[in-house]
User: Which sequence fits this backbone?
């Protein structure tokens, strides 16, 4: 008789396999002549429910691939990278990298980045809720010391960049009508996905603004992040940026050395 730990491992491995489960495992199940059929029902539910979770996470990817192709892709992913958490809310974090590794999808080089955008949207939606940075918090900071501050970005903020116009691809696939064509020659996307209030906001920003926010999120000081933005655009206006975004929910706190 196999141990409980061995039984659990065999059971989980058999769920992901396309082969008949080992007889040793079936012998541990209720022997009523239907143990194989009941196991296959459980295995089918395991694949379908997790694939459905991916479909909910990646509706635009599903639309771009088509129902049948997406179902095949999701099934393969579930078998190779099953969920490791009790909840499926954020299942599929590695889906974009998985798609990027498949030669069959090489004709759709933008698809993985669209998936990263969709995952970032869901991650932002489920992120922790915190208050906005307010003027009172900054009132004790001397103007000449502002550059030394580390601005804490909202925990929902996700920075996504792509060589492809994934923002436009994502946008035109939000409705029921596909009435707009997107050319890959439209260029790169620099996106900030954030949920400062109740709704997730997908912001298309300049490359310099994206670089600034990315470095602030990494923990750089305002001065260091600004210098990185200037490498992208020597005309980047830091004052104008903060006049728009310092108190709009992009930041939630400050840290001073």
Assistant:
């Amino acid at each position: 008789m196999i141990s409980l730990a061995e039984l659990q491992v065999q059971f989980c491995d058999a769920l992901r396999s396309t082969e008949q489960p080992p007889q040793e495992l079936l012998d541990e199940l209720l022997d009523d002549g239907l143990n194989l059929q009941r196991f296959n029902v459980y295995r089918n539910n395991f694949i379908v429910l997790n694939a459905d979770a991916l479909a909910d996470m990646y509706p635009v990817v599903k639309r771009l691939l088509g129902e049948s192709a997406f179902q095949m892709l999701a099934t393969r992913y579930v078998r190779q990278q099953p969920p490791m958490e009790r909840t499926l809310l954020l299942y599929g974090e590695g889906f974009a990298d998985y798609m990027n590794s498949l030669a069959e999808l090489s004709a759709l080089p933008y698809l993985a980045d669209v998936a990263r955008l969709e995952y970032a949207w869901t991650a932002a939606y489920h992120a922790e809720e915190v208050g906005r940075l307010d003027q009172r918090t900054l009132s004790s900071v001397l103007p000449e010391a502002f550059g030394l501050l580390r601005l804490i970005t909202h925990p929902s903020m996700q920075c996504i960049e792509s060589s492809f116009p994934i923002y436009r691809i994502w946008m035109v696939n939000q409705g029921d009508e596909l009435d707009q064509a997107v050319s890959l020659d439209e260029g790169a996307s620099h996106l900030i996905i954030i949920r400062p209030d109740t709704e997730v906001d997908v912001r298309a920003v300049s490359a310099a603004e994206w670089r600034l926010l990315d470095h602030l999120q990494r923990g750089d000081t305002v001065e260091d992040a600004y210098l990185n933005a200037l490498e992208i655009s020597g005309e980047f206006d830091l004052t104008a940026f903060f006049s728009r975004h310092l108190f709009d929910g992009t930041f939630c706190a400050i840290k001073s050395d």
Q: What stands out?
A: The radius of gyration is 24 Å.
